[in-house]
């Protein structure tokens, strides 16, 4: 696991919390912020996943 995967997962978790709090307190702005954080977190995690996959491919070909 690399730092992009860890930070992406953490950002997704923060987004889920903000979304839930926004929904519970009827705060659409906070809910939207949570949705955006989750999307950004997933994107960063995807970058980390690609880096890990590239490392695995490189290791197999050496």
From TrEMBL:
Pfam families: CsbD. It comes from the Bacteria. InterPro entries: CsbD, YjbJ_sf. Residues 4-56 form the CsbD-like domain. Gene3D superfamilies: YjbJ. Residues 1-17, 46-62 have a biased composition (Basic and acidic residues). This is Uncharacterized conserved protein YjbJ, UPF0337 family. It comes from Paraburkholderia tropica.
